[in-house]
Amino acid sequence: MEKELLKTVAAMEGCYQGFNPAAYLQYNYTAPRADFERRDSIVPWKLSCLHRALTEDDIRGDVLVDVGSGPTLYQVMSGCERFNRVILSDFLEVNRKELQSWLQEGKSSLDWTTYFKYVCELEGRSSSAWTNKAERLRAVVSDVLPIDVHQSCPLSKGILPPSGADCLVSSFCLESVSPDLTSFNIALSNISSLLRKGGYLLLIGALGESFYMGAPGLCIPVVPLDEAQVCVSLRASGYELLQLSIYRLPTDMKVGVDDVTGVFFAKAKKC
Fold first, then answer.
1. DSSP for 170-219, written as a single string
2. 0.90 surpassed by pTM
3. Is 64 in a helix, a strand, or coil?
4. Which among 67, 117, 115 has a CA at the least distance from the CA of 95?
């Protein structure tokens, strides 16, 4: 059984050869999916969920780990104000290079300015404070690390305090790197080993999705999830589910780069 799982995981890794960060960002993080003038646009919804989750329970601490960052930064724009140290991570070197380029040189395949401004406004600050937020994010990101969620120890040993991180964030990672539901559940359990008891998991993922485009002509398979399965998987991995919010894609958000029908946001606490 374990050998078969390793084979299917290896095949999944092969699907990511040729992944193009710039194309992925263009597909998913520009209008209409990132239209900050629309109440029903998906990216503002995700940013609002992250902001509310952190502020409602005053979640803060020493270490925040972003599991499977991809080439994106939006998922830690709220958290960077509440943690002393932020660790970004991804399996793919091209994604880690994309993140390092922004952190070190301010260069990126996507202009994140409107994202920073929107989060500043959520926090009750002027949008003009976005430069301060960008500086804060650069200051607290301590590492951009390789991660493998299919390993029992996804990060290198010694990176985290012995008790674990205070909070994990993960967006569209586990379902898109797992060949089936069994491996998805194992990956969820593996990343939970990074989190201290009583720590929080903020999980964003796709509903009803079987594929997405990682580059022109590169179709990557995804484990289709539904709301019930998300709840079952979190509880089986030792979490108390505190919140589950659902976004249903309007017709014009279905732009042909995937077959996702909805997005979930889960806030959970490790028991």
1. EES-HHHH-SSHHHHHHHHHHHHTTEEEEEEEEEEEEES--EEEEETTEE
2. yes
3. strand
4. 67
> What is the rounded average pLDDT of the residues 96-100?
97
User: CA-CA distance, 84 to 82, in Å (whole number)?
Assistant: 7
Look at residue 15 in the predicted model and tell me its pLDDT.
80
Mean pLDDT of 162-171: 97
**For strand 262-270 and strand 239-248, is the pairing parallel, antiparallel, or unpaired?**
antiparallel
With b for 16 or more beta-carbon neighbours within 10 A and e for fewer, the 123-143 pattern comes to eeeeeebbeebbebbeebbee
DSSP percent split of the chain into helix, strand, coil, nearest 5:
40, 25, 35
Mean pLDDT across 235-243: 97
Average pLDDT, the chain: 94
